[in-house]
Design a protein that fits this description.
With 263 residues, the protein is of the alpha+beta class. The chain folds into 2 domains: 137 residues, Jelly Rolls; 112 residues, Homeodomain-like (Arc Repressor Mutant, subunit A, Orthogonal Bundle). Helix content is 39%, strand content 21%. The chain is built from 9 helices and 12 strands. The strands form 4 sheets. The protein has a 6-stranded antiparallel sheet with strand order 2-3-8-5-6-10, covered by helices on one side. Strands 1-12 form a two-stranded antiparallel ribbon. Strands 4-7 form a two-stranded antiparallel ribbon. A hairpin with a 5-residue loop joins strand 5 and strand 6. Helix 1 runs antiparallel to helix 2.
Amino acid sequence: MISENPMIQPYILLNTQNTTVITGNRHTFCFYELYKSPVPQPLTFIPAPFTDIIIAYNASGNGCIYCVHSPSCTITFTPDDCTHIIGVRFDDALCLKIPFSPSKPVTRYTPENDDMTAVLLKQLAASRSFDTRTSLINDFLNNKILVCPTKLLKLRTVIKETDGCITINELSEITGYSNRQINRMFTSYWGYGPKDYCRLIRFQQALSEIIKNPQRSNSEFIAHIAYSDQAHFQREFKQFMNETPRQFIKKLMKAENPPLQHC
């Protein structure tokens, strides 16, 4: 049984029954099986550039798929009428062919949308092992993902190499794309602009530093991260998390299980 509001990104704080990573020619998927419970539990997602697919189903093979895309704020939702949940995380180098709205943090995708989804849910309910379930989901998703365009991957790489500390004008000078082109590419594929992506990269780095050693001071957390000062860090952290770094750390220290870093 998991505790209330387990954190999903950028780490898992819950009694995860199984985890595994499958690497293909075009992608790496991180699978995590959350629980088997008669009562659906709420899940909380921390802002990140990742996308998670949450597959929720019951013993009869009924259920649905949720696409969780949370780039701007922490969100919590409870999957409908399910006893089993498997999550799949993949990074921002991939795009889904599952129809979802980039402007919505959670999109519900039902079997009525796609016969393959109904078949998958029935197969998962009948399966007896986590390996079988991950193999089924991997085959399902391989037909529903696309690698982002090379131009966009180039922009993504440059931003990550600078740890998110780069202006759009600088990005334009390095890549040769106009500011308008850069903004259009980001919003078309990810639903948010390059400035927000830079903020996410900085924020994820800060969280990673907190996880490594939560007992350090704020100044130590941001020593090697692209925040101008502590006020900048605290303001942006609260915008993303709806709580201060210290409040978050206090919650982290009380967690029953040590955090598992994201895949």
